[in-house]
Amino acid sequence: MSNIVIYSTKPAPDIQAVLADIDEADVKVISIDQIKDYAIVNPSLMIIENIDIVKDALMTNKFPCPILFFGPVRKDVTVRAEGYDFIEDPSKSDELLIRVKALLKIKEYKDKVERVSTTDDLTGLHNRKYLQERLEEEISRSRRYGTKLSCILFDLDFFKVVNDMYGYEWGDILLRNIANKLDAMIRKEDILTRYGDEEFLLVLPNTSEENAFLFGERFRREVEKMEFIPAGEEEAHRVTISGGISTYPCMKDVDEDANTVIRYAEHALYNAKHRGKNKIIQFSQMNLEM
């Protein structure tokens, strides 16, 4: 569903009825002085009737969608958006629809390219490119507001055995099952990525180490209860998972970034593997015991 947002001085501009005929589109009218709150409505396309009223907002914001302006082409205004166009006479409904649909198509293509570049083909989860960008953002937010941020790096135990015994196709099936199970358990604000071949990294904003450990243990037990029965087998193949947890800020007087936090989670995961697998280890507890 596309969100077309008309920023107008009128409560119900004439073009609203024209745009209502576009399939799979929700058309909203918002007062033009509320343009600074554009993120709340998540627009796919913004339509602005008076460019002079919003000149300052156009210069100070980078809008994540195309914009259609009413009036002649203006070269004296800076526009930071996914694309933009002008229509001098919006009463020409045919021309209006053509321009609106073209800008929506630009948004659709750019969103598709973004999804493909940040999505793992096998599991449909985010990939490491997406993780790096988002984790830096979340660490910055955690630093600014003084909140905790936890990461859990999960790794399937003895995954090579599954591939060797049943073939890579069944290994892929197992990975998708694990990804789906984990994805179903997380919150909307959590960030789940496929980190390596059989590794998944989960970022939990505003989450203490203790709560991250409770989640990790709950997921570990869910995996332990899985019934994974490859074709031709009479009994289920036992599946277990190990995990390492790091929580930002991890160590005092250390300048920590996304790579640092991930590295600490890796250390905790390696410790869990060293202890016999099927365990969740906290980086802070590992340090205490070393």
Short summary of the structure?
With 290 residues, the protein is α/β, with parallel strands linked by helices.
Give me some keywords for this one:
290 residues, alpha/beta, Rossmann fold, 2 domains, 5-stranded parallel β-sheet, 43% helix, elongated
Characterization of this structure:
This protein has 290 residues and is an alpha/beta fold. It contains 10 helices and 10 strands. Strands 2-1-3-4-5 form a 5-stranded parallel sheet, with helices on one face. α1 (15-19) links the parallel β1 and β2 (25-31). α6 packs across α7 (168-185). The longest helix is centred in the middle third of the chain and has 25 residues, at 93-117. The radius of gyration is 25 Å and the shape is elongated. It starts with a strand and ends with a helix.
